[in-house]
Write a structure and sequence with these properties.
Layout lengths: L2 H4 L2 H10 L8 E3 L17 E3 L5 E3 L7 H4 L16 E3 L1
Antiparallel strand pairs: 1-4, 2-3
Length: about 90
């Protein structure tokens, strides 16, 4: 499935419902504050831009599971170009 096809409200809903499942053991890396995942499929109202140009979450400590666990699996990773997470 092409990344464009994964960036839909249906895909977002699926990521939300599956966010209660564990993160893949193959996930490596960390968030680099690119903000790309916060714009899937539309920009989150809680994303803010810092003075350094990086994006950050204004409700970080209480953010939902689908935000905490993105990308939970390799198939969910549709922000490969900028995301700090990778899969082995």
């Amino acid at each position: 499935m092409a990344d464009k096809e994964k960036n839909t409200w249906t895909a977002k809903t699926k990521r939300t419902f599956t966010s209660v499942l564990p993160v893949s053991e193959n996930r490596q890396g960390c968030c680099v504050n690119c903000g790309a995942c916060c714009k899937l499929p539309n920009a989150c109202p809680f994303i803010k831009s810092g003075e350094d140009g990086k994006e950050f979450c204004s409700i970080y400590t209480i953010r939902p599971y689908n935000c905490r666990k993105y990308p939970r699996t390799e198939s969910e990773l549709i922000t490969k170009e900028t995301c700090g997470f990778k899969f082995e």
